[in-house]
Amino acid sequence: MAERVVLAYSGGLDTSVGIGWLKDATGKEVVALAVDVGQEGEDMDVIRQRALDCGAVESIVIDAKDEFANDYIVPTLKANALYQKRYPLVSAISRPLIAKYLASTAIELGADSVAHGCTGKGNDQVRFEAAVAALAPELTSLAPVRDFALTRDKAIEYAATHNLPIAQSKKSPYSIDQNVWGRAVETGFLEDPWNAPIEDLYTYSQDPAITRAPTEVVISFDQGVPVAIDGKKVTPLQVVQLMNRLAGDQGVGRIDIVEDRLVGIKSREIYEAPAGMALIAAHEELENMTLERDVARYKRGVESKWAELVYDGLWFSGLKKSLDVFIEDTQKYVTGDIRLKLHAGSAVVTGRSSTTSLYDFNLATYDTGDSFDQSMAKGFIELWSLPSKVAARRDAAAGK
């Protein structure tokens, strides 16, 4: 039996052409592996057949939508993870899951290598290979686009010459990655950061400029996990799917960003993450009600580092796992309801309720009968400002 390589197959240009290029370059049989992480508008049966039509000896499709939601999206939500305060880690959190199945499939089939369709300029090459190295260090990672000089124009020409069944062409040069958490679009005219995105780029959201009545929704959380929408119990996957529709219909979650890639270059990206941005806004506000001040402040720094680690392909790293433990501990009281108003591209919190809230009306109110003893404030301020006062006297004595 010939040696095999397991290719992470998306059904797009690079991985479709990559099947033939891998066979030619290595002499190995190519097994295509597609992982369903909720790619909207993609028929996985069509993708399975496309891989076979492009020369794969075997085509495997794994339905991992619930696993993706439970084990990857939920931790991301608990971390309020936004790279550079804006990117909700759309592609970054799917790569370790795909890599997990790449490694396990390769081991199961006796393959000695795995492959992906990433370029040498992107982040995903690092995410795939770092994850595989952490899970199955004995496997070799191959990248036909990067390692065998498969440029985009060559890929388009190869696909046309070999009559490969792919939709991408010179008239549609975008690179698109999507899953249930969001959608990422790059290349083409977007590579000029002065060019504004056009409406045709978007599929997960409607134009926020279109006039429509606001949508009000109540999201219920249990220890940081969204468990119900408007009182109806739902799974994490169902929460994301429903919020994609509700928030997407209001144009929520469109992001146009120049981001700092791991490899050192800046890249212009267009993202759609209606559910992601709406759910993070709701979860953050519930944390404002339920986390102690010092925990909340410290967690913001942990969230930033967590997002950087995941963006940089270190999902299975020791530091990320340790931060997971801290984040999970912070969620034990993040339980309650958040009311969101979705309208004109924004998701605004308009109501909060929690049985584990630290918000005390009797302490917060300015009305007569409040339980806060304001007379304590004077002495507190004296002690709080004492180090500054002593330092100021020292500076004055030193002539500064």
From TrEMBL:
Recorded hits in Gene3D superfamilies, A to Z, give: Argininosuccinate synthetase, chain A, domain 2 (3.90.1260.10), HUPs (3.40.50.620), Single helix bin (1.20.5.470)
Which Pfam families does the entry link to? Arginosuc_syn_C, Arginosuc_synth
Enzyme Commission numbers on file? 6.3.4.5
Binding positions (L-aspartate): T119, N123, D124
Localized where? Answer: Cytoplasm
Q: What is its main location?
A: cytoplasm
Instruction: List the Gene Ontology MF annotations in alphabetical order.
Output: argininosuccinate synthase activity; ATP binding
- By what name is this protein known? Argininosuccinate synthase
Q: Name the species this protein comes from.
A: Cryobacterium roopkundense
